[in-house]
Amino acid sequence: MNLLKLKLHWQILIALFLAVIAGWFTGKEASLFGITFYSLYEFFGTLFLNALKMLIIPLIASSIITGMAGASQNAAFGRLGVKTLLYYMTTSLMAILIGLLLVDMISPGIVNGEPAREIIGLSADTDDVLAKTEGKGAADIAAVFLRMIPTNVVAAAANGQLLGLIFFCLLFGYFVTKVRDQYTKVMMDFWQGVFEIMMRITDWVMKFAPIGVFALVAKVVAATGFAAFQPLLLFMITVLMALAIHVFVSLPLLLHFIARVNPLKQYKAMAPALLTAFSTASSSATLPLTMDCVENNAKVSNRTSSFVLPLGATVNMDGTALYECVAAMFIAQAYGLELSFVTQFTVVLIALLTSIGVAGIPAASLVAIVVILGAIGLPAEGIGLILAVDRILDMCRTSVNVFSDSCGAVLIAKTEGEEEVLK
């Protein structure tokens, strides 16, 4: 059987399986001709990530501007925006409440009736994380909204501050249709051309996705093995169960009863994007492929996907919000604290707000967790309890983020009267 003739998601799945085996056997020290396998994994993984990141800014700018310009020409624009924001807030809140319910039921921070802090121990990397997150507090939530309006949109794009770039592109796309027709046509043709070119480049880059996925996953396994996960198994199970309920129960129910589509078709359509999200742990880096799958596989129009998906990659973080809530509650349990209903409500609220502005990059939610810990009176060093398993859970919650974005695009497209979606 020719592996190259397999569909992309099967190629990526095979690469994931082989990566686990390769990473386990080679570890960080094994080498060939003086070059460690780990350095090779790191090189090819970084190369693939860089290629994806290279696409993000021009793809986001062109897709939002063309989508916004098209939407603002009719009365449906306001309705589209309201539906998108309502969906994001609803699914994020659902995810957080699922996480809160499970962490209260399972109590992973209590081992044999005792707080787990002493049993688990703190990670050696705690000091590094504290240095990166020092000075973070609840006031950082306000900074999320300040980042929406950058003083320099070029600098915001260069620094990966997608919220500011998205806001500028939304404004630009809206006002493209408010100038003279001759200028509108030139701008529309230009940005549509840029978008078409970026999608072609995306298709080309994704031919190398199995190699990139193999390298990224093999690197993680080679570095950590599986031993680091054993003391935190109950915490991992709690997070994974909550994520699974959200992905396989709550989101499919929305697709079935509101969008009136078969959820199984959505899983099939999004398989390449979900596997890429799992391996990269970055919803922003996965965005080009997410858009490709939603438009070409799920058959959602560019008008809808170009508005919903880039916005979702920045503000719709269901998996991240769920993880923040479970992690904060787990750390509280591990320190032996009983949290009141009001305190738990505070955790839910801050998790919802911080998830909106968390950057779509690996481990960005660690900063948000520090904000939550500070708000409920826990020491920031508690984050060291979860560092050993954060990366693997980051990969899982990123897949949930991406799937939720895609479900939003499908649901909104169906409510907008698009008949070809998932047929």
Topology:
Elements: H1 8-26, E1 31-32, E2 35-36, H2 37-71, H3 76-106, E3 110-111, E4 114-115, H4 117-120, H5 126-133, H6 140-146, H7 153-158, H8 162-176, H9 181-206, H10 209-224, H11 233-259, H12 263-280, H13 283-297, H14 302-315, H15 318-334, H16 341-357, H17 365-375, H18 387-415
Antiparallel strand pairs: 1-2, 3-4
Helix pairs in contact: 1-10, 1-12, 2-8, 2-9, 2-10, 2-13, 2-14, 3-11, 3-14, 3-15, 3-16, 3-18, 10-12, 11-15, 11-18, 12-13, 12-18, 13-14, 13-18, 14-18, 15-16, 15-17, 15-18, 16-17
Structural commentary:
This protein is mostly helical. The protein has one domain (3-415): Proton glutamate symport protein (Orthogonal Bundle), CATH 1.10.3860. It contains 18 helices and 4 strands. It has helices spanning 8-26, 37-71, 76-106, 117-120, 126-133, 140-146, 153-158, 162-176, 181-206, 209-224, 233-259, 263-280, 283-297, 302-315, 318-334, 341-357, 365-375, 387-415, and strands spanning 31-32, 35-36, 110-111, 114-115. It has a two-stranded antiparallel sheet. A two-stranded antiparallel ribbon has the order 3-4. Helix 2 (37-71) packs parallel to helix 8 and helix 10 crosses helix 12 (263-280). The longest helix has 35 residues, at 37-71. The model is unreliable at 122-126 and 359-363 (pLDDT under 50).
